[in-house]
Amino acid sequence: MTTQVLDDLAARWLAVWPDALAAWGRTSRMHAPVLHTEPCGMPSWAWYTTDDVEVHIDLTVVAERGIEDHALAVLAHEIGHHLLAPVDRLTSLKIAARVKVGLVDMDHLIGLVANLWCDLLINDRLQRRAGVDRASLAAAVGTPDADNVLGLLIGRTYEILWELPRGRLSGAGPASEEHAHLCARLVRAYARDPVGGAAGFARLLRGEIDPEWLRAPESTGSVGALGCGGDQGGAGGVPFGLASDPTLAAPATHPALDARVVGGTGGATPESATEGAVGGGGNGLEPAALHALLTALGSTTSAQQVAAAWYRERAAPHLVPFPVREGPTTSEQLLGGLDPWEVGDDLSTIDWSGTMAASPVVVPGMTTVQRAYLEDEQVKSRPRPVDLDLYLDSSGSMANPSVTAAPIALAGAVLALSALRSGARVQATTWSGSGQAIGTEGFTRDVDAVMAAVVAYIGGGTSFPLELLERTHLGADGKPPTTTGPTHIAVISDDGVSTMFRPEAGWRAGTMRTVGSDIATRALEAAGGGGSLVLRISPEGRHRIASMAGRYRAYAVQTDPDLVTFARDFSRATWGGGDHGRR
Hints:
Helices cover 40% and strands 12% of the residues. It is α/β, with parallel strands linked by helices. Helix 15 packs antiparallel against helix 16 (447-454).
C-alpha cells in the first residue's frame, strides 16, 4: 500500500476522533491518537499506553485486515481503555493481580486474560449504550478458528450480550453455551467494576477450558477480532497503592458462586479483606507475588526494587507528618532619630519635615536632615533533627524481605523514612555474620539507597558489625568519625543483638585485644543522640540484654504488628516535631 493511501486513511481516521470521544460523553477529553503509517510489529491494529495516556493505531494492519471503514469502533474502544478499563497503570496492575489469582498457575496468560476482560466491559458498553457497532467490526475480521476454545467462548459471550444469532461471531465451533451465559452475566454484574470481576473471569476460564490447551503456545495467540493489543505501557516501577491493597490476593470466586452474578443472598462474596499479620496486610500481595506479577507482564523491575517499593508504601501510613517549616523571618525597619544629610547623600533620603522644622532656610549639608532607620532582626534558628544510624538483623532467623512480608524490614522502613522526612540523614545497614554487611555509603538523604539497604538480605550467621559502629562514631585507622552531628543508634534484632556487647577477641585484623561492650558504649556516648535496641524477644530476654546494654534502651516487642507499631510511635517521638530528638 502506498504512502499516499495510508496518509489519506490517517486523515479519515483522525476526522472520526471527535465522534469517538463523544461516544463516551460530551465532556470526554483526550489528545489525538498516534496513527502509524509504518509497521510497528505489535500484536494488533490498536493499543493503548497507560504511561503516556495515548492511543496508537497501526494503519498498515488496519488495511491488511480490511477494517478501514470501522474507525469509530476501533477508536472508541481504545478510548474506553482510558475511561473505563483499566484507566491507569495502577488499576491495570490490580486487574492483572486478580487475574493471576484466578488463573492459579497460568501466569503466561495474565496479560491476555486481563485484556480480554477489559475488552468485554468496553465493547458491551459501546454496543449497548453508545450505539457503536462493535459487532460489525468483529464480523469483518472473521470468526475464531474451530480449535480456538478461548476465542469461541468470548465470541459466543458477545452474541449473548448483544442478542446476535449463534455463529455470527463464534462461527461453527463448539462454544460452551452454559459457560458463555455465565460469562455474559459476569460482564453485566461487574460492568463498572473491572477489578472486582477480573478474578471471577479468570477463574471461569481456568476451570472450564482444558488446562492442556491453556498451557499450549497457541493459547496466547490471536482471538480473532475479539481483542485489541491492550495496555502496552507499564515499563516503569511499582505504582503507589498496589502493595497496600488488602484484597488483591483474596481467593477467586467462581461466577457460578458469586451472588452478584447469579443473584440471591447465599452466594459467596468476591475478594474480601481480612486482618493480616503485618501492618494490616489482609489479602494483599506479598513482595515475591508482586514481583512475579510484574515479571509475567514483561517488566524488568528487580525483586529488590519491587521490595523497596512494597515496604515504602506499607510504611507510609506510619510515618511522621511532614514538618511544618516556618519561613525566614524578615527584619523590620524601626524609625530612628534624625541624622544630618550631607552633600553627596541620596537626595531622596532628605526628611523635608524635619529639615523645615529645624530651619525655614534650607542650606544643603547644613540644615538638611534625614531619617535614620534601625534594623530589628528576628531570625530564628531552626533545630536540626537527629540523624539515624540504623542496623537491621539479617541472619538466618529473619525473613527475606524480598520474598515475604518481613516485620523487621517494615519497622526499619518506618524509622528510616520518618527520619528522612524530618530532614535527618540516615545510614542504614543490614548485617548478619562476621564481615557480612550491606548498607549505604555513609549517611545519606537518598531514599532509594536507604530502602535498598533496608530490603537487603544475607541469611547467614549472627555477628554485629562492631567495626562499622566504631568507624562511624569513634573513627578508625586514623580517620575521624563519619558522623557530623547528634545521631541516634537504632538496632532491630532478636537475641542476636547480644553479639553487640559480648566480648570478642581479634574481631579486627591485626589486633588481639578484647572488645565488646566497650565499643558499643563509647559509640553511644560519641553519637550524642541516644541508642535503642528494638528486640523481638520475651520480656525475660529483654532483661538479660538490658543488663549488658548499658545506657542503650532495650525494648521488647511480642508480635510482628507490635514491632511496626513501636517503630511508628518511636519515630513520632523522635522526629515528629517539638523538641524531641533535636538540637
